[in-house]
Amino acid sequence: MFKHWKLRQKFTAILLSILILGLSVIAIAMGFILKADTENQITSQALILMETMNSVREYTSSQVKPELIERSNIEFLPEIIPAYSAREVFETLRKNNPEYRDFFYKEATLNPSNLRDRANQFEKVIIEKFIQNPDLTQITDFRSGAGGQLFFIARPIQITKESCLQCHSTPEKAPPSVVERYGTKNGFGWQLGEIVGAQIISVPAQKVMSQARQSLVVIMAIIAMVFISVILLVNYLLNHNVVRPLKQIVKVAEEVSIGNLDADFEQLNEDEIGSLAEAFRRMKVSLAMAMNRLSRINRPER
Ligand code: HEC
Question: What integer is the mean pLDDT of 24-41?
Answer without folding.
Answer: 92
